[in-house]
Known about the structure:
The chain is an alpha/beta fold. The protein has four domains: 1-37 and 158-176; 42-149, CATH 2.40.50.140; 249-438, P-loop containing nucleotide triphosphate hydrolases (Rossmann fold); 449-606, P-loop containing nucleotide triphosphate hydrolases (Rossmann fold, 3-Layer(aba) Sandwich), CATH 3.40.50.300. The protein is 39% helix and 18% strand. The chain is built from 24 helices and 20 strands. The strands form four sheets. Strands 10-11-9-12-13-8-14 form a seven-stranded parallel beta sheet, sandwiched between helices. β19 (552-557), α18 and β20 form a beta-alpha-beta unit. Bound molecules: adenosine-5'-diphosphate and magnesium ion. Residues 260-263, 266, 289, 291-297, 418, 442, 546, 548, 577 line the site of adenosine-5'-diphosphate. The site of adenosine-5'-diphosphate (ADP) has 18 residues, from α10.
Amino acid sequence: MWWKESVTALKGIGPKKAAELAELNIYTLGDLLSYYPRQEAYVDYSRLRTIRELATDGSKQIFTAVVFRIRDSFQGRGRKFTVVTVRDETGYADLYFFMNQRYMAKKLKIDEKILITGRIKQGRNAKMVSEVFYQTADSADVLTGIWPVYSLCGGLTQKNMRHWIKEAIKRAEKDLPESLPDYVIKECGFTDRLTALQNIHFPRDWNSLRQAQRRFVFEELFLLQCGLLYYRQSNESAKAGIKHGQDGQILQKLIATLPFKLTEQQQHAWREISLDMQDITPMHRILQGDVGSGKTVIGALTLAKAAENGFQGCMMAPTEILAAQHYQTLKEYFLPLGIRTGLLTGSIKTKERKALLDRLAAGEIDVVVGTHALLQEDVVFQKLSVVITDEQHRFGVGQRAALANKGQDAPDVLVMTATPIPRTLALTVYGDLEVSLIKGRPPGRKKVQTLCYTEEKRLEVYAGLRRQVKKGRQAYVVCPLIQESENLGVRSAENVFRELSQGVLQDVRCALLHGKLKDSDKNAVMTAFAAGEIDVLISTTVIEVGVNVPNAVLMVVENAERFGLAQLHQLRGRVGRGSEQSYCVLLTGTDNSETLARLQVLHDSDDGFYLAEQDLLLRGAGQLFGLRQHGLPDLRIADIIRDTEIIVSARKFALRLILQNNNWELLRELIDRQFDNRFQMIFNS
Ligand code: ADP
Ligand code: MG
């Protein structure tokens, strides 16, 4: 199988080039062939213009020119940008590189000839090019037709890449196995794999390119779905589901003793879950509700139902802080009902852990709350019937499966999340998952007031912070980083902590919380904050998830521009949990109008679903919905958001194949080849 050979099999690739290719995750000839150019990254040399011909209408255009001058400029507040002036026979143009793009400008040399794409507008002196992408223009290239542009690193050039890929295609011409079943190719009208491969790298024309792209997008999504279905099936199919009885006295008592009345939405969600549990088919349900909508209590009911029926339930949270908090809540609810609870996290002492595990295995604990520590092999249940994961976007597919596998029978699975998940991602990541929704929040809450200030107001904001503390309230200060780093101008938790606790908040009880602290220290800090022994918590986003301290009424976010909207919304959800008016102050060092507009959205809306949508529009899907977050392989060419229709169709074909399949070996080989055995690792770990 030539495609499994190392890239060094090609002439011109020695250890040095191979190492550079490895940085792009290219190890084999097969990897090289599936290193597709980004969807929009093709250059049509027939559309090449001179500088004079460039239209200044803000559209993206392409031209070649020679580097004439490189200089740095300042943009207020000490932020630099770089202007590279280029020229051809017809005139001059200025290329603008901002912030983290500046390193690209630094690599240019005077008199170097480059091929440039970018957005063209009229500047004061010359045409102005932004969103610049350039590559070295190899004069030896014949500049006609459509050419791929690969994302590269190190000393690799486009010319290298094209040459190597051409060589690899030559091998493919002799022997390239098809990766889609015949009938799929026919029904979808795809071209054969070799033609598609040639056209995705060296398109004959735009139409052939689109066709090739469509095929590979489909192929990738199809195999992904096959992989998920195949491994899920081989993991789960053998087990029977569990039937719970109708809600009995314990549940009625629990609902009656809650300190509040369930909202309509909560009641509705609970009915759906309860019915699922009474059915023999294992539940696969996601409970979606904005931050503060009251999901935890629904989780409590679910666990209580397991206990009421003589089974065990467990709830997994992404952090120790959150697990401990859930444990407290559940213990309060469950103690009067005789439901026995336990807490299992990484920082529990060996002896205690041993005792807990023994009781769990003997069925002497009904409900256990914990972190990833629950996944360890020696955690054994006597009769597990319900598995809940809270704030699931922190857990992967494989982790959820591992937890569900701890029952003799297939337990009911409930996933609680505040992050709205686009339908296509839900399909991809969870398969067929039913959704329960809690809209809105419990009554009597005041909306958190969100204010957006630039840094000049910092001292005033800190003064406000001090006033709140003097009134007996608590507050959070959130920073994007733990320590100062290369990223100048970004406030770190350590620095802010030092500054505040030695300055404005000298006589106030401050504490520092971040991900690098030991788990036991994190817990100690969080417990003290929850108990009101700390007034101001200076932290990174570790507090983002689920923490509930009703007396905390103010949150200050430093360098708010560094966070996504959905993330800021999650953060903001930490305040406004009591009956007091709460505030969220977004401090930002930038006066960039786009950023300010983005933060303004947060001031205008407190609807997490809407904000996530906006984030999607503003930041693109890739950042938010990488599959890797879910423990799945990242996609090379398909896009979870853009390719909705293809996902749906790929899933249909995959289901059909799985249902009627007779050739499992071949299917596994295809899946494992496409995804480097990642599915095996995910599901067998
Ligand atoms: P999230 O959905 O973000 O996990 P929580 O479950 O932490 O939200 O609930 C937030 C707060 O709302 C908790 O203090 C909880 O006790 C309270 N709460 C939940 N349901 C209701 C209700 N129906 N009425 C009043 N308060 C409620
Ligand atoms: Mg929660």
